[in-house]
């Protein structure tokens, strides 16, 4: 995979994604900026279903803000799921609050990813403004929800099946 400033989050090699009938996925979604997180969720669901994951094998839980994603994912990994996708959107404000939420959430999710038996997929968008977020949830940069779904299925196929 090549790094590119302009990478479209919805573009991937379709042949590289495993058919995933029977795979169980947990999704934890933050309600803050729900116009963005709802679109990320829609993208993830659409891509999961495209590769054979059935709706009845997807558990969705909501948390109030991105900072609660760590707790939500910690609970979700105890359920019968093969991977967990964490979805949130933090937009920079006038204070350092943004940095604390982003760092705390990222460390929390990374810790769970490293210590639990279930892969945790990082679907946290961190942007300077709303437009950058909209660009990444189905706009000109694609949809990070698609990318998360593809990543989850690849991780399950490689390590959990
Ligand atoms: C408080 C807060 C602020 C200012 N901004 C965001 C944001 O942009 N995105 C987000 O997901 N959550 C935000 N929150 C809420 C925190 O994540 C958290 O829910 C609260 O601090 C309560 O723990």
Task: Provide an overview of this structure.
By secondary structure, the chain is α/β, with parallel strands linked by helices. It has one domain: Rossmann fold. It is 42% helix and 21% strand. The protein contains 5 helices and 6 strands, in the order βαβαβαβαββα. It has helices spanning 34-50, 69-76, 97-115, 130-135, 144-160; strands at 25-30, 58-63, 83-91, 120-127, 137-139, 142-143. The strands form 2 sheets. A 4-stranded parallel β-sheet has the order 2-1-3-4, sandwiched between helices. A two-stranded antiparallel ribbon has the order 5-6. A hairpin with a 2-residue loop joins β5 (137-139) and β6. α1 (34-50) packs across α5 and α2 (69-76) runs parallel beside α3 (97-115). The longest helix has 19 residues, at 97-115. The two termini are 23 Å apart. The protein binds ligand DLZ.
């Amino acid at each position: 995979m090549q790094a590119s400033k302009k990478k479209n989050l919805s573009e991937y090699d379709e042949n590289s994604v495993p058919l995933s009938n029977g795979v169980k996925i947990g999704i934890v979604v933050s309600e803050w900026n729900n116009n963005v997180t709802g679109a990320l969720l829609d993208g993830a669901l659409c891509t999961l279903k495209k590769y054979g994951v059935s709706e009845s094998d997807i558990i969705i839980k909501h948390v109030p803000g991105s900072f609660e994603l760590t707790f939500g994912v910690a609970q979700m990994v105890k359920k019968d799921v093969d991977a967990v996708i964490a979805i949130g959107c933090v937009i920079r404000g006038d204070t350092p609050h943004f940095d604390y939420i982003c760092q705390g959430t990222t460390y929390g999710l990374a810790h769970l990813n490293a210590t639990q038996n279930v892969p945790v997929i990082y679907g946290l968008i961190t942007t300077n403004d709303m437009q950058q977020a909209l660009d990444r949830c189905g706009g000109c940069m694609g949809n990070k929800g698609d990318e998360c779904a593809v990543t989850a299925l690849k991780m399950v196929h490689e390590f959990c099946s």
